[in-house]
Design a protein that fits this description.
By secondary structure, the protein is α+β, with helices and mostly antiparallel strands. It contains four helices and three strands; from the N terminus they run H-E-E-H-H-E-H. It comes from Salibacterium halotolerans.
């Protein structure tokens, strides 16, 4: 049961659509890797996400790309701190992918 996102959390999520998984060439949102975006009262942003595989060698690249994608919001004072929390529960499966990502990668629906 997902809570409704605030307008600002939706803006953060939209920026995360600019972060592409380097191996798959699809953004992390459509891949279903982003489990949540939370913004607290001090404008700190916590992104809870997973990766397609444990031990992914590109984890640091993806985290760096996330920080870069949110750079403008941070520079304009809309975001204070950015915390990226990589979790393994629930595990990622192809079912979490959007229809767009499945079509792009040729994954059956």
């Amino acid at each position: 049961m997902a809570e409704e996102m605030t307008e600002f959390e939706e803006r953060v999520m939209a920026e995360l659509e600019n972060v592409t998984d380097p191996e798959l060439g699809i953004d992390i949102v459509n891949l279903g890797l982003v489990y949540g975006v939370d913004v607290d009262e001090e404008s700190n942003v916590k992104i809870t996400m997973t990766l397609t595989a444990m031990g992914c060698p590109l984890a640091e690249t993806i985290v760096s790309d996330i920080r870069y994608s949110l750079k403008d919001l941070q520079e304009f004072g809309e975001i204070s701190e950015i915390d990226v929390d990589i979790v393994w529960t629930p595990p990622w499966t192809k079912d979490k992918m959007s229809r767009y990502a499945k079509i792009a990668l040729g994954v059956p629906d």
